[in-house]
Amino acid sequence: MVTSPALRHPMDPEPVRSTKAGTVFALGLIGLLTGPMVGGVVPATIALVLSMQARREAYASGGYLTGGAWLRRGERLAWAGIALAAITVVIALIIGVVDFAGSPAGRDFSPTVD
After folding, report:
1. CA distance 48 to 68
2. Which residues have CB under 8 Å from 80's CB, separation 6+?
3. Membrane-spanning residues where (predicted)?
4. Phi and psi of 11, rounded to 5°?
5. DSSP annotation of 7
6. Of these four, 17, 24, 29, 32, which has the most CB atoms within 10 Å of its CB?
């Protein structure tokens, strides 16, 4: 038995891709690329906030807004950018602690002779 696709009403709008989905992907990519410089946290955070808004709008549209794959990819890129920024901060702290531990603490006085 062959089933026909659901008939749409002629006044229904055409499904379109959400513009926020493309923006989330672009910001996630920028966050990933600039993540090691720690500046990637800002676009990645904006991407995650926009993705929540886009998901709500897509749900409320009843299927007329598409772009779920772009949202998922953008979210993954944004989280990867945040992870790279966190790893960079941890490595910088470890290098700073090791450097601080190798330097002498306090003043180095010369011995006095009586």
Report:
1. 14
2. 31, 32, 35
3. 24-50, 77-98
4. -90, -5
5. P
6. 24
Q: Return the amino acid letter for 45.
A: T
Q: How much is the pLDDT for 4? A: 56
Q: What are the pLDDT digits (tens) for 45-56?
A: 999 999 999 999
Residue numbers of the domain that contains 78: 16-102
- Alpha-carbon span 81 to 39, nearest angstrom: 9
Longest dimension (CA), the chain: 109
pLDDT tens, residue order, the chain (114 aa): 555 566 767 777 788 888 999 999 999 999 999 999 988 999 999 999 999 999 999 888 888 888 999 999 999 999 999 999 999 999 999 999 998 887 776 666 676 765
Total number of domains in the chain:
1
Residue 107 lies in a domain: no
41 within domain boundaries: yes
Q: Is 44 contained in some domain?
A: yes
